[in-house]
Amino acid sequence: MKKGFINSLIGVMSILLSLVSCEADKDFLTEKPSTFYTVDNAFSTAAQIDQAVVAIYSQIRDLWANPGEEGWIFVLRGNGTDMYDVASIRRGSTFNNYGNINPDNGVFYNVYSTWYQIIAKANLAIYSADLPTISWSSDDEKAYVVAQAKFFRAFAYLNLGELFGGVPLVTEIIKEPKYDFKRSSRVETYQFAIDELQQIENDLPETTAAGGRIVRGAVQHLLARLYLAKGIQLGVEGGDAPSAFAQAVTFANKVIDGGTFSLMKERFGSRQEEAKGNAYWDLFQENNVNYQDGNRECIWALQIDYSAYRAEDGKSKLPYSRTYSPVFRDGAKDHLTGSAEDVGGRGIAQMIPTMYTRDGVYTDKWANDMRNSDIVFRRIFIGNVPTSPYFGKPVPWEEIYNGSSDATVNAANSSLCYPVSCKIATDKYTGVEDGENMSNLFRDDYIIRLSETILLRAEAKQRLGDKNGAAADINLLRARAKCDYLVTAADVDDQFNLILDERARELIYEESRWNTLLRMSGTIGVDRIRQYAYWPEAKATLTFNYNLWPIPNTIIDTNKDEALQQNPGWENR
């Protein structure tokens, strides 16, 4: 299916490029040629509409994997939160200096506009599916294609609602310039996505023959997330939050207890016979990610294919060993150097885990945890510089972090050097024999994994007052991770620190942390940023509270015929 996706994408892009080129050429338009493409004649077959949906899958892949290493996507993936910051060599581009962060910041515009690009593509596919010129082989074929497009439209509005709050609901193709879009409320934005997903829940299969396509469990997972977010906002506004939280539990139950998905508790997959490794490590090895690989924990994964990368699709890669891995050759140059497997690959530290993420969540009773084992979160690095006193021995973190008498040097070094997750590096790099360096992984990657569904249900239960139930759900993950310490209701705190900490342990490099923090409401997000950001700029400059990103000023200014209200905290900044 991966090559099929790529071939389909090439086909649809040729049509879309024709549309763009024709619109740009006024003389050509004046002649009104019979071959001019419009939204009503751009598609002539059902297969082409499916190709338009495949184009959305491709954009989601690029948005998630970030093969172009775009800075704003690192923010979308969590840079600037409690979990991630930037290394000393990139301090000028930090997303934690609020002297530089305002509604004119390009990050906000890029994120906002990209989700609307996805909405526009989904609207095009939905509209075209009803064209009289399209012949579908069956009602089920049409329903499946439309359901995928509606899923992506709902997914986009979920993300916009979590990050920006209420936004304009665009459900039709815009054929003429429009400058009077009206914001919906945050609850209305969530409700639109909920209605969209409930319409298509049964139009998607429980499983598919090949990986990558949306399945019913992905819809139910998003419904759990949407009802949770809606309930939180209703609680702020004085609405019926408990009913929404109960619905979140109901949809999470469908995924968790439905019989299709389950946690992987035993060794499995392509490397299960190797003595090293454990069940959690197996989740992130090549050929192990998809449900079709025997991984019952995978609900939706983006597809990466090395042969396609070599042949025609240079974006079919996960550049995680480059963008996320440390730079020991700078931060611990007297003891560790190089760019091979022994130092986590060819890292350039575009986004680093904060001390909270790397160490804080594993202190004291939390330390004994499979997710903190050296095979999963590698902390043992053997000195490879012959002149080092640690040559051939483990280099102590105290030496790396505090080896200098200069505190500024130590801060810089510890920002460059940190444990390496098995999610961003491997000991077996594909493509080295073909001349590839150790920058990229060529495995598929999760967008939705059952673990997150369990954590959503735990949070919904906590918000319903069921702390015992929340603890039991969290312990499903902790038991799989063979943790010594299992939580109790007494650990379930009202600031949701336990939930957020467990998400950090389980979903490092997986969740979009901004979405999680901003939907929490109140000052939970900003308080954690002030507390855990690596550099002191955050605490010094984050002098106001917010729980939404700002509406980009460019959007407000362009919408000249309807005033769009700025989000609280960002006015006049």
UniProtKB/TrEMBL annotation:
Q: What is the organism of origin for this protein? A: Olivibacter domesticus (Pseudosphingobacterium domesticum)
Query: Which InterPro entries does this UniProt record tie to the protein?
Result: SusD-like_N (IPR033985), SusD_RagB_dom (IPR012944), TPR-like_helical_dom_sf (IPR011990)
- Gene3D superfamilies given in the database record: 1.25.40.390
Q: Where in the cell is it found?
A: Cell outer membrane
Q: Which Pfam families match?
A: SusD-like_3, SusD_RagB
Task: Give the signal peptide as a residue range, or say none if absent.
Answer: 1-23
KW rRNA-binding (keyword) present = no
**Domain annotation SusD-like N-terminal: ranges:** 43-228
The UniProt record lists the RagB/SusD domain at 401-570
Provide this UniProt record's keywords sorted from A to Z.
Cell outer membrane, Membrane, Signal
Is Glycosyltransferase one of the keywords UniProt gives this record? no
**SUPFAM superfamilies, alphabetically?**
TPR-like
PROSITE patterns, alphabetized: PROKAR_LIPOPROTEIN (PS51257)
Question: Mind telling me what this protein is named?
Answer: Starch-binding associating with outer membrane
What is the similarity comment for this entry?
Belongs to the SusD family.
